[in-house]
Amino acid sequence: MKLFVCCLLVIAANAVTAAPAGQKLAKLREVLNDFKKINGSIEHNGLMLNTPLMDDDEKCCAGSVLKCFSSKLSELKTTKAEHMKKFRRNLEKSMIEKSVNACSEEDTKKAICQACEDYSMKDSRVFMQALESLLQKAYDRLKN
């Protein structure tokens, strides 16, 4: 009987710890699908936006980078405004922010991150490619 109870506890513990990663993966998949819907509807008319292009030195700044992307999305013109609203709402969820961040909470607090306005101005197409890259890297990391 004790063995049975121990097995149940192990199974329950695994289910509890696995759920958040599965939820993050599902939410990231939803965000990536929304990204694809809006990306094709954006009017890329030479608009220049502050665009974070993350390198390895900035990996602990992924949360602030995501906030930068989210804040600049409102400057883009799209024919799918409702999809854009949903996409921005999802990007601002803490689950997505935690998903893109590959660093420990301690390392993230120590990181010195650039302000959004300090990133160089890039064409809106480059901006969208960089955002997609950030989301896709997070998805791939959680998937593996």
Automatic annotation (TrEMBL):
Sorted UniProt keywords: Cytokine, Disulfide bond, Secreted, Signal
GO function terms (MF aspect): cytokine activity; cytokine receptor binding
Gene Ontology terms: biological process: immune response
Claim: Secreted is one of the keywords in the record: yes
An example Gene Ontology CC term for this record: extracellular space
UniProt keyword Zinc present: no
Localization in the cell: Secreted
Domain of life: Eukaryota
Signal sequence coordinates: 1-18
UniProt family annotation: Belongs to the IL-15/IL-21 family.
Stated role: Cytokine with immunoregulatory activity. May promote the transition between innate and adaptive immunity. Induces the production of IgG(1) and IgG(3) in B-cells. Implicated in the generation and maintenance of T follicular helper (Tfh) cells and the formation of germinal-centers. Together with IL6, control the early generation of Tfh cells and are critical for an effective antibody response to acute viral infection. May play a role in proliferation and maturation of natural killer (NK) cells in synergy with IL15.
Protein name: Interleukin-21
Taxonomic source organism: Megalops atlanticus (Tarpon)
